[in-house]
Amino acid sequence: MAQPATHSLPCSAGIGLRAPHYREVLDGLSKIGWVEVHSENFFGGGAPLRTLLKVREHYPVSLHGVGMGLASTTPIDQMHLSALHRLCDAVQPAAVSEHLCWNSAAGLVINDLLPFPYTQEALSHVATRIEQVQEILGRQLLVENLASYLAFPHSEMTEGEFLSELVSRTGCGILFDVENLYVNVRNLDADAEAFIKAIPAGAVEEFHLAGYSERGGCLVDTHDSPVHPEVWELYEYALQHIGPRPTLIEWDSDIPALPVLMGEAANAQNRLEKYHARAA
Question: What domains does the chain contain, in order, with CATH numbers?
Answer without folding.
Answer: 13-279 (3.20.20.150)
